[in-house]
Amino acid sequence: MKLSALEKKYQKNKKPFRKFIKDLEDADVTDIVDIAKQAEKEVWQEVDCLKCANCCKKMTPTLEASDMERIARHLQLSVPAFKKKYLMYEKDEKDWRMQVQPCVFLDQATNKCNIYEVRPDDCRGFPHLVKEPINDYVHIHKQNIKYCPATLSLFRLSAANVFTMILSCIRRR
User: Which residue range forms the structural domain that includes residue 44?
Assistant: First the structure.
C-alpha cells in the first residue's frame, strides 16, 4: 500500500481509531487478546508487507546488543565499526537506531531486506500486533498505525469484533 493511500485512510479514521486505542488502554477487556489474535489472522490475508515496506522506509528499529553482534558478524564488521557506519545513539531514549531512513538494508526495488536472516529483533516482531501483555504495546500501535496497513487493519477488525462482542452481551440481557 502506498504511503499516500495509507495516510488518507489513517486521516479519515484517525479520531475513531485513536479513541478505540485510548479506550483499550483504559479498559479491562479480558477477551481482547483472543479478539486481536483472530483479527491478526484476517490482517495477514489482506496485507502483503512486500507491497508496502513503510516500516523500513519511514521508521527505524531499536537495536539491542545481540542485534548489533549478529548483524556485524554477518557483515564481517566489528561491532564498533558496525555502529559507526550504520547506527546512531539516541540519548533521550537511550536506544541505538539506524542513522538514515529508508533503512540502508532495504532493497527499494523489491522491498526486501538485504539482511533478512539476521535482521534486528525489533524488525522480526514488527508490527507487534498481538505481543502480550497487549496493553504494554498500545503506545507502539499508536505510532505504527500511521505507517503500517497491518496495524490499521488490526484495529479496524478488532474494533468491529469488540463492537460485535458488546452487542451480543447486550442482546443476552
Answer: 1-60+127-173
Question: Can you say whether the dihedral through the CA atoms of 103, 104, 110, 113 is positive or negative?
Answer: negative
Query: Into how many domains does the chain fold?
Result: 2
Which cell goes with 72?
556485524
Could you tell me the pTM of the whole model?
0.74
Contacts of residue 146, defined as CB under 8 A and 6 or more positions apart, other chains included, come to: 6, 7, 10
Shared domain for 53 and 3, answered yes or no, is yes
The percent helix, strand, coil of the chain (3-state, each to 5) is: 60, 10, 30
Cβ neighbours around 106 below 10 Å, total: 19
Could you tell me whether strands 95-98 and 112-113 are parallel, antiparallel, or unpaired per DSSP bridges?
A: unpaired
Contact indicator for 144, 152 with CB cutoff of 8 Å: no
pLDDT tens figures, 59-97? 999 999 999 999 999 999 999 999 999 999 999 989 999
Same domain, residue pair 67 and 96 = yes
